[in-house]
UniProtKB/TrEMBL annotation:
Family to which the UniProt record says this protein belongs: Belongs to the binding-protein-dependent transport system permease family.
Protein name: ABC transporter permease
Transmembrane intervals: 31-58, 93-114, 126-147, 174-198, 219-238, 281-303
Keyword Transport attributed: yes
Subcellular location(s) of the protein: Cell membrane
Keyword list, A-Z: Cell membrane, Membrane, Transmembrane, Transmembrane helix, Transport
GO CC list: plasma membrane
Organism encoding this protein: Actinopolyspora erythraea
Length: 316
């Protein structure tokens, strides 16, 4: 007696089932193919240099001879025997605390003004955004230095009111403010983000608050700020990270020396000085990793604090 032959419909069902199991694998393979350029770039251009710099931070390296392992000596010297390192850290922290809040406040104020106008919004938005495109360049930083230098435009303007500053960039108490003002002037990018967030606030909330008798200040505090808090948080994190890494304005305003009296010696400027001027690349690598850790800690603290003041619509 011959064995029964399988039915054709059973064979086709088994084939379709196998094809269904193989389809996710083919899609996964295609995804890895498309991701491979990014993965290769991240491994070669980001991860590998980071690991090399981590190794160099434990060595004495001058770019010309082979690295010499010194263990934690760079970190110990940094924290215990280098007063200029601490001066650069304090200058950077002071700059962050001054520049970031003032920049965000100005960006929000201009965004509120632009959100209330009907005609010409595109023109004004582009005009206010332009400094963010130009401000990071060396040429604008040089112009900024000339404006606040001895005999510059700002100095001449103040002299007409009987105020003789002798040039802001030459005064240890004012040079850091010059760099901060350059950053505050570049408020265009956060302004555009604030403006986009303002346009997403439901108008019904303002109408309800107005019916309840809320004035402009109360509507701003009770409606605008809570609804804009996720955008404010995003701008705060982004601008804080960028402020810790400021280099071009400080380098240009101080002539690359961090003067006068180390008043504009920012962290990245001192890192550049140790690595490329003094050829202490191992020490500079250690400074870079400390900066990375500090930025990570500050960012984590900002995220943790956001639980108490950032409002998301999906929370109900």
């Amino acid at each position: 007696m011959s064995a029964p032959h399988p039915r054709p419909d059973a064979d086709s069902a088994a084939a379709e089932s196998a094809a269904g199991r193989n389809r996710p694998r083919r899609r996964e393979g295609a995804a890895w193919v498309f991701l491979s350029p990014w993965l290769l770039g991240a491994a070669v251009l980001t991860l590998t240099p980071m690991l090399v710099s981590l190794y160099l931070s434990f060595t004495e390296y001058d770019l010309f001879t082979a690295p010499k392992w010194v263990g934690l000596d760079n970190y110990v010297h940094m924290f215990t025997s280098d007063p200029r390192y601490w001066r650069s850290a304090v200058n950077t922290l002071l700059y962050v605390l001054v520049a970031v809040p003032l920049q965000l406040a100005l960006a929000l104020a201009v965004a509120l003004a632009l959100n209330s106008i009907g005609r010409g919004k595109g023109f004004y938005r582009s005009a206010f955004y332009a400094p963010s495109l130009l401000g990071a360049s060396m040429s604008i930083a040089l112009v900024w230095r000339a404006l606040f230098n001895d005999g510059g435009t700002v100095d001449d303007l103040l002299s007409t009111f009987g105020i003789d500053m002798g040039g802001w960039v030459n005064q240890p108490g004012w040079a850091l403010l010059v760099v901060a003002l350059l950053t505050i002037w570049q408020f265009g990018a956060p302004m555009v983000i604030f403006l986009a967030g303002l346009q997403q606030v439901p108008h019904e909330l303002y109408e309800a608050a107005e019916v309840d008798g809320a004035g402009r200040v109360r509507r701003f505090l009770s409606v605008t700020l809570p609804m804009l808090s996720p955008v404010l948080f995003f701008n705060l994190v982004l601008q804080t990270i960028q402020a810790f890494q400021v280099f071009t304005p400080a380098f240009t305003v101080s002539g690359g020396r961090g003067g006068p009296a180390d008043s504009t010696l920012f962290y990245t400027l001192y890192l550049y000085d140790r690595g490329f001027t003094a050829s202490h690349m191992g020490y500079a690598a250690a400074m870079a990793w400390v900066l990375l850790v500090v930025i990570g800690i500050v960012t984590a603290l900002l995220f943790r604090s956001s639980r108490s003041w950032v409002f998301y619509n999906d929370k109900g």
